[in-house]
Amino acid sequence: SAQLDWMLCFSAVVERGSFTAAAAALGCSKAHVSRQVAELERSLGVSLLLRTTRRLALTGAGHRFAEHAARLRRDFDEARQAIAAERDAVQG
Fold first, then answer.
1. Residue 68 to residues 30, 53, 61, Cα–Cα distance (Å)
2. Per-residue pLDDT tens for 13-60?
3. Taking burial as the number of CB atoms within 10 A of a residue's CB, which of 5, 35, 62, 64 is the most buried?
4. How far is residue 86's CA from residue 68's CA, in Å, rounded to a whole number?
């Protein structure tokens, strides 16, 4: 879903510390990552990141959302790994 994409882009920005590094890690453009994060902020009705030309910082809401997003991403990764292991066991 679009909301999952928004969250994954936001998480990548937080983890990597920049839109450019997040885009490289995700294999997409910086503009795409920026749009996804902007859509997430718009949908939540709050700013998650403070952007300046030299620095990127999380707002209070950004910190709280980042914690939840990281947990959701870990759960999603674990679910994917479990399904992959099950698929490999059935095929093997």
1. 23, 27, 11
2. 999 999 999 999 999 999 999 999 999 999 999 999 999 888 899 999
3. 62
4. 27
Q: What are phi and psi of 51, to 5 degrees?
A: -110, 130
Task: Give the per-residue SS3 of 23-77.
Answer: HHHHCCCHHHHHHHHHHHHHHHCCCCEEECCCCEEECHHHHHHHHHHHHHHHHHH
pLDDT, mean of residues 80-88: 89
What is the pTM (predicted TM-score) of this model? 0.84
C-beta neighbour count of 86 within 10 angstroms:
10
- In whole angstroms, give the CA distance from residue 42 to residue 39: 5
- Model confidence at 92: pLDDT above 70: no
